[in-house]
Amino acid sequence: MEEETHTGALRDEYASGSHADLDPVQRLFLEKIREYNNMHRLNEEDPDYDKQLSEERAKLQRLHGGGDLSSFPQFSFSEPEMDKDSK
C-alpha cells in the first residue's frame, strides 16, 4: 500500500513538473526521462528522419542478408546425431 502511494507521488511529481520533495536519484531519473522524451520528439519532427530511417534499414538488410526486419527470425535446429559407441 505504501509503495502504491509512493509511485503515485512520483507520477504526480512528474506530471506537475515539481520535484522538490524527491531524493536526488529520483529527481535525476525524472530529468533523464524528460530529456529522452524531448530528444525522441525532436528526432521525429526532423524532415530527414524518414530518409535516415530508410537508409539505416537498407544498411541493416545489406549487412544481414536481407529479409524482413519487422518480424522475428525463425530458427530451426536439427537434433545432432550421436554415436552410441563414443564416450
From TrEMBL:
<dbReference type="InterPro" id="IPR036204">
    <property type="entry name" value="ATP_synth_f6_sf_mt"/>
</dbReference>
<protein>
    <recommendedName>
        <fullName>ATP synthase peripheral stalk subunit F6, mitochondrial</fullName>
    </recommendedName>
</protein>
<comment type="function">
    <text>Subunit F6, of the mitochondrial membrane ATP synthase complex (F(1)F(0) ATP synthase or Complex V) that produces ATP from ADP in the presence of a proton gradient across the membrane which is generated by electron transport complexes of the respiratory chain. ATP synthase complex consist of a soluble F(1) head domain - the catalytic core - and a membrane F(1) domain - the membrane proton channel. These two domains are linked by a central stalk rotating inside the F(1) region and a stationary peripheral stalk.</text>
</comment>
<keyword id="KW-0375">Hydrogen ion transport</keyword>
<keyword id="KW-0138">CF(0)</keyword>
<keyword id="KW-0472">Membrane</keyword>
<feature type="compositionally biased region" description="Low complexity">
    <location>
        <begin position="70"/>
        <end position="79"/>
    </location>
</feature>
<dbReference type="GO" id="GO:0005743">
    <property type="term" value="C:mitochondrial inner membrane"/>
</dbReference>
<comment type="subunit">
    <text>Component of the ATP synthase complex composed at least of ATP5F1A/subunit alpha, ATP5F1B/subunit beta, ATP5MC1/subunit c (homooctomer), MT-ATP6/subunit a, MT-ATP8/subunit 8, ATP5ME/subunit e, ATP5MF/subunit f, ATP5MG/subunit g, ATP5MK/subunit k, ATP5MJ/subunit j, ATP5F1C/subunit gamma, ATP5F1D/subunit delta, ATP5F1E/subunit epsilon, ATP5PF/subunit F6, ATP5PB/subunit b, ATP5PD/subunit d, ATP5PO/subunit OSCP.</text>
</comment>
<feature type="region of interest" description="Disordered">
    <location>
        <begin position="61"/>
        <end position="87"/>
    </location>
</feature>
<comment type="similarity">
    <text>Belongs to the eukaryotic ATPase subunit F6 family.</text>
</comment>
<dbReference type="GO" id="GO:0015986">
    <property type="term" value="P:proton motive force-driven ATP synthesis"/>
</dbReference>
<keyword id="KW-0406">Ion transport</keyword>
<keyword id="KW-0999">Mitochondrion inner membrane</keyword>
<dbReference type="GO" id="GO:0045259">
    <property type="term" value="C:proton-transporting ATP synthase complex"/>
</dbReference>
<dbReference type="InterPro" id="IPR008387">
    <property type="entry name" value="ATP_synth_f6_mt"/>
</dbReference>
<dbReference type="GO" id="GO:0015078">
    <property type="term" value="F:proton transmembrane transporter activity"/>
</dbReference>
<dbReference type="Pfam" id="PF05511">
    <property type="entry name" value="ATP-synt_F6"/>
</dbReference>
<keyword id="KW-0496">Mitochondrion</keyword>
<keyword id="KW-0813">Transport</keyword>
